[in-house]
Design goal:
Elements: H1 3-13, H2 18-25, H3 29-35, H4 43-51, H5 56-61, H6 68-73, H7 86-96, H8 100-118, H9 123-133
Helix pairs in contact: 2-3
InterPro entries: Cro/C1-type_HTH, Lambda_DNA-bd_dom_sf
Domain HTH cro/C1-type: 7-42
Protein name: Helix-turn-helix protein
Length: 149
Amino acid sequence: MDFFGRLREERARLGLTQQEVADTANVHVKTVRRWESQVAIPLDAMVPLLGIGYDVQYVASGLRSKNVHELREKGIDYEVAPGSTRDEVEMLKAYRALTPAQRDQARAMLSVLAVKSSGERSPRSAAAAGKAERGEAPAAKGRPRRGKG
């Protein structure tokens, strides 16, 4: 069976109408009909289908997710990649509990830590290097000096 057939099969397995899928994906029902008959579905449109139980791995590859349905029934979060450590799972749970502004701050802190641990220049030193290459004077630190005059 091809991709399009598996997409139809998943909808039927879940007992959903094309209109229900369209409502979930926020598209017109004609779009769902096209997806199920030789028109590629955009990746971002697959995301809402996960939430209603589509086995996206099966649709994409023809291989069923072995335990996705069992995990959902037990209330376990399947959105964590297999092989993740307990620390990674806990960090992801904590991240999801943050507000959007807090998430922005967390991402900024992680990017700084990643830069420092990889031995790359920090964003500040990279900016200073760019100014030096252009022949610009580095920004003065602290209060301006008073010259003799």
